[in-house]
Structures are given as C-alpha cells and as structure tokens.
Amino acid sequence: MLVLGIESSCDETGIALVRADGANTSAVPVLLSHALHSQIEMHQAYGGVVPELASRDHIRRVLPLTQQVLDEAGQTLADVDVVAYTRGPGLAGALLVGAGVACALGAALGKPVLGVHHLEGHLLSPFLSADPPEFPFVALLVSGGHTQLMRVDGVGRYEILGETIDDAAGEAFDKSAKLMGLGYPGGPALSRLAEQGDPAAFKLPRPLLHSGNLDFSFAGLKTAVMTQAKKLGDDLEPRKADLAASTQAAIVEVLLKKSITALQRTGLRRLVVAGGVGANKALRSQLNAVCAKAGIRVHYPELHLCTDNGAMIAMAGAMRLQSGLQQATRAYAFDVKPRWPLGSL
Ligand code: KG4
Ligand code: ZN
To answer: How far is the CA of 338 from the centre of ligand 2 (A)?
Structure first.
C-alpha cells in the first residue's frame, strides 16, 4: 500500500510517500521520500505567520513537491493507493489547500482519501526513526500550540494525562523570544542564544511544578520574562543570552519533571517526545541523562522531522489504516477541522 501524505496546516508544505503492508500487520511502514517547503522566510517580515499568505504559498508548492517525491521514489501518481492529508487542527485556509488537493487527486485517480489529525502525525513521527518505539509508552507532545502528556497503548488509544491550561511550551518559547527581539520562529532562535548564557542567571517561575497533577501552565512564565526584560532596560542587550538560557531552563525543567512523574504514575518504561519543541537540545540532553539513570528508553523523531512535515502525515495515515481503526474513503466532499482535540479521536 503506497500512501501519499500532504501536510499544509500552518507554515510548511510537506509531502511524503510511505509504503505500508496491508491491514492489521505489525510491520512499521517505511518512508520512501519526502519534501518540504518552509515559509519561514516569507513570514519573517511580519514577525509571525500571516494566514492568507500561508494558504497562497501552499497552493504554489503542493503539486511541484508532490511531483518531486514521486520522482525521488521512482513512482507515479497512478501507483498511489491512498491520499492522506492533514484535516486539522491548524489554519482553516491552509488546511483547505491540502484537503482540496488531496480530494481532487483522489477523485481524479479514483483512489480513496483519508483525513489525518496533525497531532497524531507528530505523536507517531518517532516511528519514522531508525529506532522506533513500541507500544505502550508515555508521550510528551510539545508542538507550537499544544503541550500534552499522554498514555499511548496503540494507534488511536490515547489517554490524556495532563495538558496545558493556557500557553503551550512552544508558545512560551516563541512569545519570550519575540519580546527579546529574537524574531520568528522564536523557539530555535532562543535556544541557540541560550547556549551562550547562564541558565541560573535569573530566577524565573516553574509554573505548576508542584501542582500534584500533570497539567502545565506557561502564560505566567512569559509574563515573568517580560517583567525581567523591562527591569533590565538598557542592560537587556548584554544579558539577553542569560535571560534566554534562564527561560529555556524553566520550560525544560517543568517538561522534564512532569514527564518523569507521568512515567512513575503509569509504571511505563518508555517515553516518546514529539512536536517542534522536541528538537530542543537542552530538553533532549536533560531527558536523556535522567532517563538513562532511571532505565527508561526515550524516543524522538529524527531532528528534521520534529517540526511539521508530510512524512508524519503519511505515516499516521498508514498506521491508522493498518490498525483497521479507519478506512480511507472515496467520499471526496471534504471539510477541515481547525480546532480538533486529539482526545476526541
Ligand atoms: O510541531 P510544530 O512544528 O508546529 C505545530 O504543530 O505547532 O512546532 C513548532 C514549535 C514552535 O513553537 C517552535 O518555536 C518550536 O516548535 N521549536 C522549538 C525548537 N524548534 C522548534 N522550540 C525550542 N527549541 C527548538 N530547537
Ligand atoms: Zn505541528
């Protein structure tokens, strides 16, 4: 079964081809090729994603990228068995491009289509790595808009253990970076600057660290960073790396401690980290150190597949089909779900 995956939920157009064995097999699907166009440069002038520009750029990129992945894999459109696309959550206009193209391709080829949950794509993206996880595991899902801890017993078997009550960890990175003048996207910029700073330089809050539950809250941290930046005034510039390092340390400590608590409470010995913030070096090295000591296996997506991409959408589509949970359909009337809680799957 050859699955074409199309991701267009935000500011990256991602296309991929995944080969999977038929239904109900335990063989992990294999990535044949993938291609990505990032709109970062285009949105940089505006300090953030401009939804209308995002949609228009997806339209320009989606077919050339599709041709590129087919050529790289030595396949043609006629070889595609299922077209999987991101149905949500994300920007409505951007999602509509991927959904529209997927359903048009499906209709033209007479092949079934499948709408995929973007966060399930992130969640299952470590299965694309050379060291794929095995179920069950605890998942720390840290994307731009979501921060969740989950117990994952299989494809589609997700129990939310805790989640953010306000900002996501990615938002805390992005908003803190913005108010330090580091531009968009803030997370990678802040973490690069943090490498030159002292993580203990400023005392910043660790929200909900001792709350006794597995929920997160990062809105207060962003406010504390703003207060600190204002207090520094003209001294902010020379202390920016220290403030970046202290901000990152606060976010990472909370993510780390809550993940360990989730592992203790579930009794599971395996942790999967997915989503854009999973690319963060400090988070990876601290999680690796703590988990190695505790005999816990940690799995990440390949670094270049942490942020949005088509491979994770093709993979999640293929795994859902294999699991028998869902069937691709020849109903080509589509809708998108800009808001779509993962727990409702
Ligand atoms: O998963 P993702 O690509 O998009 C969503 O589905 O939201 O995540 C993007 C988020 C952004 O907040 C970005 O700043 C953050 O991931 N991010 C990072 C790093 N790379 C991406 N945050 C911290 N350190 C990084 N290295
Ligand atoms: Zn994402």
So the answer is: 13
pLDDT level of residue 293 (50, 70, 90 thresholds): very high
Placement of tokens 């790289």 in the chain: 72
pLDDT tens per residue, range 184-206: 889 999 999 999 999 999 999 99
The answer to whether the CB of 161 falls within 8 A of the CB of 137 is no
215 C-alpha to ligand 1 centroid (Å): 19
Q: Whose CA is nearest to atom 24 of ligand 1?
A: 280
The span from the CA of 137 to the CA of 189, in Å, is 31
Atom of ligand 1 nearest to the CA of 185: 14
Give me the residues paired with residue 83 across strands: 4, 113
Residues 179-206 as b/e (b if ≥16 CB within 10 A, e otherwise) read: bbebebbbbbbbbebbeebebebbebee
| pTM listed for this prediction | 0.96
Of all protein residues, whose CA lies closest to atom 23 belonging to ligand 1?
187
